[in-house]
Amino acid sequence: MKKVGLIAIIALGASSLTIHAQDMAQDSDKGFFIGQDAGAVFQQRGTISQSGTPNESLTYNPGARADIDLGYNYCRSFATEFEGGFMWNSIDKANGMPLSLFDENVNIYSIPILGNFIFRVPTHCGLVPYVGIGGGANVSILEETSAGQRYHDSDVEPAIQGEVGLNYRICPNASLGIGYKFLGAFNQHYFLNQFGLADHATLQGIYIHGVFLNFTWNF
Length: 219
Hints:
The chain is mainly β. The protein has one helix and 13 strands. The protein has one domain (2-218): Porin (Beta Barrel), CATH 2.40.160.20. Helix content is 12%, strand content 71%. The longest helix is centred in the N-terminal third of the chain and has 26 residues, at 2-27.
């Protein structure tokens, strides 16, 4: 009898946890949500072409990115969102030579503005995997300091983004998670009037990987 009673208690507890998880999911089936994420970004090797000079191979330092999302859940599995953020990274080397050797520093500040489609894998527990794809624009600002002089210009180019991640529901309306994003943008074009000379600079190969922590609140 004791074994039968223990089995009944365990079964009842498991049923309660399952029902609780289902209730948590149903509470956030539909409605608006706001999310925030922040993390590190790593830009792939690229090239730069400038007026009257051969193309140079570029490597980048690790950077940082933070985003805010405002979206709507249509059901447990599907949502759309508007995403805006801020990203920073800098050029490390050109043709294998550190820019610091030439007393040069190049920072790139970016504002991704994207619309995303999100698909969440339905589960009966607090862990929720998701994938997403989106597109929009990337506003970039290049700031160069060379020989004590400062130059800057901006550009706006189309961009696409893919993402995957895993969230954990900490309560019916909130979740924490980790995610990965890949952002690709068209070549960035800048006009830098250096030393009185017109210099058109084009950054090619804008492919950026990011790893993030995120928080989402459904309301």
